[in-house]
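Dear colleague,

Thank you for sharing your sequence with our group. We've completed the structure prediction you requested, and as agreed, I am returning the results in plain text so they can be pasted directly into your records. Please verify that the sequence below matches your submission; if there's any discrepancy, let me know and we will rerun it promptly.
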Amino acid sequence: MLGVRDMSRHVGEWISVRAHVERVPPRLTLTFTFGDLPDGWSRSERRASTWAGLAGLLLLLPFIALIGAGLLRGIGASGPYDWLTSSPAAILAATISLFIGIPVAIAMNLWRITRVGLHRDAGSLDGLLALEFAPLQLIVVVAALVIGGAFVAHLAADSYACLKGVQTAC
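Please find the predicted structure tokens below.
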């Protein structure tokens, strides 16, 4: 229970990387900050909200269910996989979740928790990339990136095998 209490204490804080470049003398400074945004940067009006995280989870759920059923089939329990693949509605939902749900979930949740900006002064440039610590949104974004990345890696592996002459991969 101690871990949850510690994590909830940091909700709303920022993880940021600030780059400051000066022309004279030539200098590049990178600053990593945990907590508040660096001086000169204001909070965005977009706040992390529970509805965006829940909507992201709902967008990912059909494809996660199909992946879970496939994993269960791999260990010998083929009932859920057979049920999902015999239902045209379930196949359509998983397909929409893969090709539309994953990008929308990533965009919708990153839009809420990301702060990106540039400030230009005479002879210098400041850049900022910051993420608000919002556990639900971060979980949705990481899950969507892992699922999407695994799918793309699977396609790349099949394409490579097909190029090397494995007919079953084509």
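Summary note from our side: The chain has a mean pLDDT of 87.

Kind regards,
the structure core
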